[in-house]
Design goal:
The chain is of the alpha+beta class and 379 residues long. The protein has a domain of 259 residues. 21% of the residues lie in helices and 36% in strands. It is built from six helices and 19 strands. The strands form three sheets. Strands 3, 4, 5, 6, 7, 8, 9, 10, 11, 12 and 13 form an eleven-stranded mixed sheet that branches. The protein has a six-stranded antiparallel sheet with strand order 14-2-1-18-17-19. Strand 4 and strand 5 form a beta hairpin. The chain is globular, with a radius of gyration of 22 Å.
C-alpha cells in the first residue's frame, strides 16, 4: 500500500495562537492607565481548551480595563491542523478591538481527476479547496468576506507585502522529498461603517504553502497544501487606530502556547497521522484519544515544543526588527524574558502576571499598593 504523504506546516502548532504581524506608528498614550496616571497596566488573559484537552491552551497580555474571550475549536477531519484558536480583546469604553481569527487551511491540485472529485468550494481532508493565493489576495478574497461581511461601505485603503515575515522559516525545494515551501506575509488597511460609526481596520496574515509532487501513471502532478495563519485584526474608530499603537504592540508580541497543552496536542496529531487520517467526527472519539495520551512530556515532544517556540520567537524578532519597536525585559518573577513596547522609562511586573509600563523614571507602583511590584531590567 502506497504511503499517504501529508505535509504539515513547519509552524502548524505555534500558528494556533501565532505572532501578530502589525505595522503601527507611535501616537497618544494608550488605554489601561494606572489610577495615578503613572503608567499603563496589563494583565495576563489565559484560555482553556474546554472542548478538547481540558487544560490551559494559551495566554496573552491585555490592558487591565479591557475584556477578552478566547477558545480552541477542534476540527478532526483536518489531521495537519485539527485545532484552531480564536481570541478577541476589546476596550468596553471605546472602539479599540483586537481579534485573532481561526487559521484557514486550503488544498489545491492540478491533477484533473482530483479536481473533478474535489472542485473549488468542496473540502479535502478538512481543508477548503481553493487555488493558492498570495497573502494580500488571501486577505482581500477570503478574510474580508469571511470576517467583515457585516460592515457597510467597505473601502480598501492600502496594501503592503511583508516578505520579511518568512525569513526564519526554511523555504525553497527540499532535495529529498521535492516539496517546495513558500512563505510570505501581508497587511491591508480598510475603512467601513459599523453600526453607524466610521472605522479603521488593519488585517494581517502569514501565508505558507507546500507544493507536493505526486507521481502517477499519467505523469507528475502537484498537490498544494496552503495555510492562512496569524489572521489578525486591529480596529478602532477612524482616527483612533494609530494612537493606540503601544497597546496593540503589547498584545501582538505576548501570545504564548502552554507547553503541557501542546504536548497532548502533538500526541493527538501523531495519532491522526499514524492511523491513516481516520475520519473522527465527534468529541467522544476525541476524548478517547486524549485519554490514551500521557501527561508526561517526552524528550521528543518537549524538543518539538522548544523548536516551535524558537521559531515563534525568531519570527517575532524578524518582524520587530523590520516593523515594530519593542524591547526585551528580564522577568524576575518567572525567570524568563518578555517583549513589550519600547519607549518607556521603566517596566514593572508582579506575581499575578501583570505589567506596568511608565514614562516616568521615578515612578514606583509599590507606593500606595499592597502588591509586590518588581522592576524589570533589559538583558
Amino acid at each position: 500500500m502506497k504511503k499517504l504523504y501529508i505535509a504539515i506546516p513547519v509552524i502548524f502548532v505555534i500558528a494556533i495562537i501565532g505572532v501578530c504581524f502589525l505595522v503601527l506608528r507611535p501616537g497618544a498614550p494608550p488605554t489601561g492607565q494606572t489610577s495615578d496616571g503613572g503608567g499603563v497596566r496589563y494583565k495576563t488573559a489565559s484560555f482553556v481548551d474546554s472542548q478538547g484537552i481540558g487544560t490551559k491552551a494559551f495566554s496573552m497580555l491585555i490592558p487591565v480595563d479591557w475584556q477578552s474571550e478566547g477558545s480552541v475549536t477542534w476540527v478532526l477531519d483536518n489531521p495537519a491542523m485539527p485545532a484552531t484558536g480564536a481570541f478577541k480583546a476589546w476596550n468596553p469604553n471605546g472602539t479599540e478591538e483586537f481579534v485573532m481569527f481561526p487559521n484557514q487551511a486550503f488544498f489545491w491540485s492540478d491533477n484533473p481527476m482530483v479536481k473533478q472529485m474535489f472542485p473549488t468550494g468542496s473540502r479535502y481532508f478538512g481543508a477548503g479547496v481553493h487555488s493558492p493565493l498570495g497573502a494580500i489576495d488571501a486577505l482581500k478574497e477570503i478574510a474580508l468576506p469571511l470576517f467583515r461581511s457585516n460592515v457597510e461601505n467597505l473601502t480598501l485603503v492600502s496594501t503592503q507585502d511583508l516578505p520579511q515575515l518568512g525569513n526564519s522559516v526554511k523555504t525553497g525545494k527540499d532535495p529529498t522529498t521535492g516539496v517546495v515551501t513558500v512563505v510570505n506575509g501581508g497587511k491591508i488597511r480598510v475603512e467601513y461603517m459599523l453600526n453607524g460609526v466610521a472605522m479603521e481596520d488593519e488585517l494581517y496574515c502569514h501565508l505558507q504553502s507546500q507544493n507536493i509532487p505526486i507521481v502517477t501513471y499519467a505523469g507528475t502532478y502537484s498537490n498544494i497544501n496552503w495555510y492562512m495563519t496569524y489572521v489578525e485584526s486591529f480596529r478602532a474608530e477612524k482616527g483612533k487606530l494609530d494612537p493606540q499603537s503601544k497597546v496593540f504592540q503589547t498584545i501582538s508580541v505576548s501570545g504564548k502556547t502552554d507547553v503541557n497543552w501542546l504536548n497532548k496536542y502533538n500526541q493527538v496529531v501523531n495519532h491522526l497521522i499514524q492511523n491513516q487520517i481516520q475520519q473522527i467526527r465527534n468529541l467522544g472519539q476525541l476524548s478517547s484519544i486524549i485519554s490514551q495520551t500521557s501527561n508526561d512530556i517526552s524528550d521528543e515532544n518537549f524538543k518539538a515544543w522548544q523548536q516551535n517556540q524558537d521559531i515563534k520567537d525568531q519570527l517575532a524578532k524578524d518582524f520587530s526588527q523590520n516593523t515594530l519597536d519593542i524591547q526585551t525585559y528580564n522577568d524576575p518573577t518567572g525567570g524568563g524574558t518578555v517583549e513589550l513596547p519600547s519607549g518607556y522609562n521603566t517596566a514593572w511586573v508582579n506575581s499575578l502576571g501583570e505589567y506596568i509600563l511608565s514614562d516616568s523614571p521615578t515612578y514606583n507602583p509599590n507606593v500606595g499598593s499592597n502588591l509586590n511590584w518588581q522592576q524589570m531590567t533589559t538583558p
